[in-house]
Structure prediction request, 382 residues.
Amino acid sequence: MFKWAQAAMSTVAGTAEPIYGSEAIRTVHQHSEAADGKPDYTELTSKDLAWHVGKGTNVETQVFYIATEAGPFAMAQVIYSVVIPGVKTTAQFNIKLFDPKNPDGKVWSSVPLSNPAFHDNNTSFYADNVAVILSEDGGIYKIKSQADSEAFCNIVFTRLSPGFMAGKDGRTTYGTDQANPWGEIWHKFWPRCKVEGSLILKGEQVNVDGHGLFIHALQNMKPHHAAARWNFANFQGPTTSAIMMEFTTPPSYATTRVAVGGLAKDGQIISGTLDNTAEHVKAENDPEAEWPEPKDIKFTWKGKDKDGKEVVGVIEKSWGPRMDRVDVMGEVPDFVKKIASAAAGTRPYIYQYYEPATLKIKVGDQETSEEGIIFSEATFIS
Prediction:
C-alpha cells in the first residue's frame, strides 16, 4: 500500500481495537454512583465551559442549534481537532440552514480556520475571521464568523435555564487503568436559550431569532473507537426543552450504551436524567448507505425533580422525509474510504430530521404535553 494512503487511512479511521471488555469503560452513570450524593446532574459554571485543548488525538466542538421563530433550522459549529499529536491540528467552522418549506434549498458551509487560539481562561475561541466569546457573567455566547465569504454568521445565545452536565462531571472514561484513563467523552449543555441574530448566505440575510440549544463536547480519543452509534434529540417548545445524547461503544468496550439528557423550562431544570432510551421502533434499510434508517422513534427520559418526584418525558414520532443524510467521509477519496471500512469497519453516516413533535412530561401524578419542534440525528459509524 502507498505510504500516503496508509497515513490517510490512519488519520481518517485509525485501526480496530482489541476486545478490552466492560472493565475498560467507566460510564458517566458509574462515575455518578461513586460520587457523594449520587448526583444525576451538576449545574455548570463558566470554568466548566473552558476548552479542554487535549494533547492526544481528540475532537472538541461547540455547537449552537437554533429552532427559529420563522420556521427554518439553523446551526453554527466550531470544531477543534488534534489529528496527529504534535504534528497536525485542525479547526473548522460550519453553518447549516434548512427550511422545511424548501427542503431542496438547504445551505451547508464548512471552512477550515487559520490561527485558532483560546482566550479568557480558554472559555473563548478565536481564529482568523471567527470569534466564539463567552460573556464575563457566563450567561451569553456571541458567535461571529466571516470565514466563508458566502456564509456570514452573527448570533447571540442567551441562557434561559441553568446549564448542566450529567452526573458529577459528565465524563465517561476509557482504559484498562481507570485511575489513568486513555480516553474520555463528555457533553455539557445549555438546554434552553434565547437566540438573536442573523446569517448572511450568498448576500441574503436570514433572521434566526428563536430558541436554541448549546452543546460543548469532547471525544478525547479516536471518535470511532469511542462510539459505534449515536442518537440525538433536541426538542424546543414555547416553554420547555428536552435534550438527549445517546451513544453505544464498539465491541472493544462491551457494546456499552450511555444516554445523558435533561428537561428544562425557562429559568429551571426540571430534571437532569441518566436513565434515558432512544428506540428505533421501526427502521428500513437504506440501500445507498447500507444502514437501517429509522422511521419510527421513541425517546424516553427518566429522572427526578428537585423535590424527589419521579419525572418521565416521552416523544414518539414517525419520521417523514429526512432533512439530510450526511456522508461523514464524503471528502475522502473512495479507495481510501473502502480501505478504512475494511480495516476498521468505519462507514459513518448521519441521518437528520427536523419536524413538529409532542413532548409529554409526567412529574409525580401530574402530566402535561407541549407542541414544539424536534431536531434529531441517528449516526452510524461502525
